[in-house]
């Protein structure tokens, strides 16, 4: 599975941005899709995940983005989205999409995801 993330850029605090991640080479609808991010000087962290339709398509968020970010998927387009709103300077990071088949208890662990996109930089100015 190849993943191509896009949509990053410079945005002012309080603004919005939508990231996209297009998948190819696999059965997208059966994959759990996630977003992680890495801020300068920090380790990569979990942001959000959406399970496959076969696993209810449920979504989960980190506490830091809950209520501000929304993850969604379009299986017809093999694409997962991350709609980011009320952005804060601390949201500045390289955002990575990932695909895999983690079990429910391991959705937030990057080691559970076999496929990764190249990352897209989001910079939030104050």
Polypeptide structure, described:
By secondary structure, the chain is mainly beta. The chain is built from no helices and 11 strands. It has strands spanning 2-6, 9-12, 17-24, 32-38, 45-50, 59-61, 69-74, 79-84, 93-100, 113-116, 120-125. Strands 2, 4, 5, 6, 9, 10 and 11 form a 7-stranded mixed β-sheet that branches. A hairpin with a 6-residue loop joins strand 4 and strand 5 (45-50).
Name its key features:
126 residues, 4-stranded antiparallel beta sheet, 7-stranded mixed beta sheet, 11 strands, mainly beta, 50% strand
Instruction: Tell me the β content.
Output: over 45%
User: In angstroms, what separates the terminal alpha carbons?
Assistant: 37 Å
Let me know the number of strands. Answer: 11
What count of helical segments does DSSP give? 0
Report the C-alpha radius of gyration, rounded.
13 Å
- What sequence of helices (H) and strands (E) makes up the elements? EEEEEEEEEEE
Shape: globular
Helix content: under 10%
Detail the poorly predicted runs.
none
Sketch the major β-sheet.
Answer: 7 strands, mixed
Structural class: mainly beta
Q: Mean pLDDT, as a whole number? A: 96
Provide a brief overview of the structure:
With 126 residues, the protein is mainly beta.
């Amino acid at each position: 599975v190849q993943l191509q993330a896009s949509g990053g850029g410079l945005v002012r605090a309080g603004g919005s941005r939508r990231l996209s991640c297009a998948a190819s080479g696999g059965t997208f609808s059966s994959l759990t899709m996630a977003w992680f991010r890495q801020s300068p000087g920090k380790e990569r962290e979990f942001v959000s995940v959406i399970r496959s339709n076969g696993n209810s398509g449920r979504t989960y968020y980190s506490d830091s983005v809950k209520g501000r970010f929304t993850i969604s998927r379009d299986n017809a387009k093999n694409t997962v989205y991350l709609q980011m709103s009320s952005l804060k300077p601390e949201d500045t990071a390289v955002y990575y999409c990932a695909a895999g088949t983690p079990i429910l208890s391991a959705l937030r662990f990057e080691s559970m995801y076999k496929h990764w996109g190249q990352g897209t930089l989001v910079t939030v100015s104050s």
